[in-house]
Design a protein that fits this description.
single chain, 418 residues, mainly alpha, 0% strand
């Protein structure tokens, strides 16, 4: 039995939306060479989709299915006819866009006009991004693709399969949350690496330091310390890279706090922000001095492996247990010892585990940010050891001086902050 028609104003708005979205996508296709369909065709497809949706509302879904089959057949026949007169196209992009816009026209009548607008806008952007996307794919190497696949495995395959509940010693281990932090760290590192690969310009000390801080400031410090022995290496330039990377760590720390404990940003962020600005000032001065001496390039390679992700997950779980046990048996003093130990080589584990405890009301915010800062100061000390052990004399002096100034400022914040 036929269903009553929607109101005329709603129908006009839906058909107008379908028509306009068809014009929008068709405008982009109009500029393509050897195009199968242009602006008029896409507009008509949108309207046809809306008409099919309207008839489906009135007479039932079989009308929409029949219209979709008929339209798909028409697109296939048109493509076959096109192939008889021209060289084979590189793909079926336009034909698929036609089918998507036909379906988009259908959903405008069902009251999902906003969704239709989002889909059509995305389709236009995707079509217009042909050259940048193809260039990006050509620049992705086998190693890069392998790391992307591993991130997909960690985030889209393993993560959903893990139980999302507290368990284990003192009830602080949540497998889902632990692996989520693994995915977060691997994703941030890989995104930073790919951004540097596609943007280029990593020859500048500032960009090299920023990317190094996002990937691993400790590894960056060790790398530039070893390279400081190369003939002609610029010690102050390499020191600037290390200091910038170390300052960027506190940007990453604040991002992790915002993700893991969003309800406690007001209490936890100000002292960490102060440390970031202080360290950033030291790094900026070092970079300014290095600009007068030249620039140095930091080598880059895909930053993450699945094995490293598993190791981080284990470390994160251990830190959760150590922090919980220290609080249980030793009070706040034990917490700071645990923070210093875990922060020596890695800031992410102590930051994420501490933020997690804050978000579950297991730790006070005033204690939490101090633990994170203690971990950061311990990390600075560890980098200082790397500088002395691995670096050349021309690199050791400016790097140690900058790290020492940053360390003093951090101690001041730790002691004097209310």
């Amino acid at each position: 039995m036929p269903t009553a028609l929607p109101e005329t104003s709603e129908l006009l708005l839906s058909f107008g939306t379908a028509f306009g979205l068809g014009l929008l996508v068709g405008l982009q296709r109009e500029w393509e060479q050897n195009r199968v369909a242009g602006i008029r065709t896409f507009a008509l497809v949108g309207v046809f989709g809306a008409l099919s949706g309207l008839l489906g509302v009135i007479y039932g879904g079989w009308v929409i299915a029949a219209a979709l089959v008929a339209f798909a057949s028409l697109v296939v026949l048109g493509h076959l006819a096109e192939l008889k007169h021209k060289e084979p196209d590189s793909g079926l992009t336009t034909e698929m866009a036609l089918l998507v816009m036909f379906t988009t026209g259908i959903i405008t009548v069902s009251g999902q006009r906003l969704l239709a607008v989002i889909i059509a806008g995305s389709v236009m952007v995707l079509l217009q991004s042909k050259k940048p996307l193809h260039n990006m794919v050509r620049r992705i190497g086998e190693d890069d693709l392998r790391e992307i696949a591993r991130l997909v495995l960690a985030g889209l395959v393993i993560l959903p399969a893990l139980p999302n509940r507290e368990m284990g010693y003192l009830g602080v281990l949540n497998p889902f949350s632990i692996w989520l932090m693994v995915v977060l760290i691997v994703g941030i590192s890989l995104a930073a690496y790919l951004a540097g690969k596609f943007l280029g310009g990593t020859r500048g000390a500032a960009l090299a330091g920023i990317l190094g801080g996002l990937i691993s400031s400790t590894a960056t410090t060790a790398s530039v310390a070893r390279r400081s022995h190369d003939q002609g290496a610029c010690g102050i330039c390499l020191a600037a890279i290390s200091l910038i990377a170390s300052a960027i760590v506190f940007v990453r720390v604040m991002l992790e706090v915002a993700i893991a404990a969003p309800a406690h940003l007001k209490e936890m962020l100000p002292p960490l922000l102060a440390m970031m600005f202080w360290f950033g000032l030291v790094a900026a001065i070092a970079h300014r001095i290095s600009e007068r001496s030249g620039k140095h390039t930091a080598d880059e390679s895909p930053p993450s492996e699945l094995k490293s992700a598993v190791v981080f997950g284990l470390l994160y779980a251990v830190v959760l247990i150590v922090v919980a046990a220290a609080r249980e048996h030793f009070g706040d003093s034990g917490l700071y010892i645990a923070a210093a130990i875990s922060g020596l080589t890695d800031m992410d584990a102590i930051t994420l585990s501490t933020s997690r405890l804050v978000s579950t009301a297991s730790l006070e915010t005033s204690t939490a940010w101090r633990m994170i800062l203690v971990g950061g100061l311990a990390n600075i000390v560890f980098k200082g050891v790397l500088v002395v052990v691995l670096g050349a004399r021309a690199f050791i002096k400016p790097a140690l001086f900058g790290l020492g100034i940053a360390l003093l400022g951090g101690v001041g914040i730790l002691v004097l902050w209310p």
